């Protein structure tokens, strides 16, 4: 380790350009050392093969709620990865996680998520109708990027859409790095847990045509059923992850296209590029948050570098997606890139994002709607003026004004 340990997350030239340290650390050493907002020093992986290898290795733990693990945030509990699971459900890793994954994956098949595409389209059209009716310019975050994923996940789980502001608030607080206090985190966690518990009880008593109702009924001769606490943990996780990351990605994808107009013109000329554009936008995301931790449970090596048991490593998925050894000319936006769907934006291994198909559906619907209805869509302001949401693990933009 060098005497000077850089602070992490790294600063960016602007919201659409990656920190120079991504390439520098990847070139210098497979395991860099950085200082988290908590003050703790961790190892950082930015290479594609190293990141994928660690994510797929089940010997290493994603649970930082253990002695010696690094803390992520400035709150006393150390952040979301150190925070004990609601209800103390043992589904973070190991047999408990595998059992939970087998049960919940039945509700997240590609076929079932694709069946939601018409409803997602209806919601997107309604939001664009409202945005256009109010006139140009519009804050795309408030008009579409935030409400669409929240409405989708509320409909999916059977939660009232009028509660969307609560989910947005609770999610942001729980994902804090430096923005919120421990008291605010505790309050958000308590309120979110109580809300999800009430929702689960309601779905058990009066099942409807929604995912949460389906999850209350799923049973297996080997795995049994999801317990009340497992259902609460699942509902909280889906409500949090199901809108925060997709909301951010809608803005980032749109900014990537509009900041260099020829990118948007290309998809206007050929709407068949929409799926490829979505994958390339996911790959080139320069503002993907802090990354994912792993607690090292036994002495090991990462590309020949010794890593001792008790260490904490963070993997930066989005830095890995810029690895030139995997993606030649990685800073070039190319929706026809043959292997761009091999990006790690949704993770890899046993914790690969269960909702990735739904996220792809939402992003494709949004972009297709823009191409069809807003061919003159433009950024109101220079890309360099877009403001990053500071102090939260998920990153994203504070707002993004567009014209048409």
Report on the architecture of this protein.
With 404 residues, the protein is an alpha+beta fold. The protein has one domain (20-403): Cytochrome P450 (Cytochrome p450, Orthogonal Bundle), CATH 1.10.630.10. It contains 15 helices and 11 strands. The protein has helices spanning 20-28, 48-56, 94-104, 110-114, 117-134, 140-145, 147-157, 164-174, 182-205, 211-217, 228-259, 261-269, 274-283, 317-320, 356-373, and strands at residues 32-35, 41-45, 138-139, 219-220, 224-225, 292-295, 300-302, 305-307, 312-315, 378-379, 401-403. The strands form 4 sheets. A 4-stranded mixed β-sheet has the order 1-2-9-6. Helix 5 (117-134) runs antiparallel to helix 7 (147-157) and helix 5 (117-134) crosses helix 15. The model is unreliable at 85-89 (pLDDT under 50).
- DSSP E strands, number: 11
| Strand percent estimate | 5-15%
End-to-end Cα distance:
51 Å
The number of helices is 15
CATH topology-level name:
Cytochrome p450
Topology:
Elements: H1 20-28, E1 32-35, E2 41-45, H2 48-56, H3 94-104, H4 110-114, H5 117-134, E3 138-139, H6 140-145, H7 147-157, H8 164-174, H9 182-205, H10 211-217, E4 219-220, E5 224-225, H11 228-259, H12 261-269, H13 274-283, E6 292-295, E7 300-302, E8 305-307, E9 312-315, H14 317-320, H15 356-373, E10 378-379, E11 401-403
Parallel strand pairs: 2-9
Antiparallel strand pairs: 1-2, 3-11, 4-5, 6-9, 7-8, 10-11
Helix pairs in contact: 5-7, 5-15, 7-11, 8-9, 8-11, 9-11, 11-12, 11-13, 11-15, 13-15
């Amino acid at each position: 380790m060098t005497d000077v340990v850089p602070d992490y997350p790294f600063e960016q030239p602007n919201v659409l350009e990656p920190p120079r340290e991504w390439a520098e650390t990847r070139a210098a050493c497979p395991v860099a050392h950085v200082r988290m907002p908590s003050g703790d020093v961790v190892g950082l992986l930015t290479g594609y093969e190293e990141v994928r290898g660690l994510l797929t290795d089940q010997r290493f733990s994603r649970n930082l709620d253990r002695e010696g693990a690094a803390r992520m945030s400035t709150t006393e509990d150390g952040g979301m990865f150190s925070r004990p699971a609601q209800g103390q459900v043992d589904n973070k890793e190991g047999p408990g996680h595998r059992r939970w994954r087998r049960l919940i994956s039945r509700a997240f098949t590609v076929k079932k998520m694709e069946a939601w595409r018409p409803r997602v389209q209806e919601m997107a059209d309604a939001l664009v109708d409202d945005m256009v009716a109010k006139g140009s310019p519009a804050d795309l975050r408030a008009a579409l990027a935030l409400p669409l994923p929240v409405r989708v996940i509320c409909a999916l789980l059977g939660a009232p859409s009028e509660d969307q502001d609560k989910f947005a608030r609770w999610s942001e607080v729980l994902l804090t790095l430096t923005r919120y206090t421990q008291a605010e985190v505790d309050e958000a966690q308590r309120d979110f847990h109580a809300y999800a518990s009430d929702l689960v009880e309601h779905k058990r008593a009066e099942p409807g045509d929604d995912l949460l109702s389906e999850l209350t009924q799923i049973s297996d001769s080997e795995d049994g059923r999801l317990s009340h606490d497992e259902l609460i943990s699942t509902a909280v996780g889906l409500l949090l992850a199901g809108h925060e990351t997709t909301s951010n990605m809608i803005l980032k994808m749109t900014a990537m296209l509009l900041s260099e107009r020829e990118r948007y013109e290309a998809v206007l000329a050929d709407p068949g590029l929409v799926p490829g554009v979505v994958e390339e936008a996911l790959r080139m995301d320069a503002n993907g948050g802090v990354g994912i931790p792993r607690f090292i449970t036994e002495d090991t090596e990462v590309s020949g570098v010794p890593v001792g048991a008790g260490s904490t490593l963070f993997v930066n998925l989005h830095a890995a997606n810029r690895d030139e050894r995997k993606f030649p000319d990685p800073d070039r936006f190319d929706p026809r890139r043959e292997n761009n769907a091999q990006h790690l934006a949704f993770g890899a291994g046993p914790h690969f994002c269960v909702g990735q198909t739904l996220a792809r559906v939402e992003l494709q619907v949004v972009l297709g709607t823009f191409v069809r209805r807003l061919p003159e869509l433009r950024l109101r302001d220079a890309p360099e003026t877009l403001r990053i949401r500071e102090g939260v693990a998920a990153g994203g933009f504070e707002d993004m004004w567009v014209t048409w």
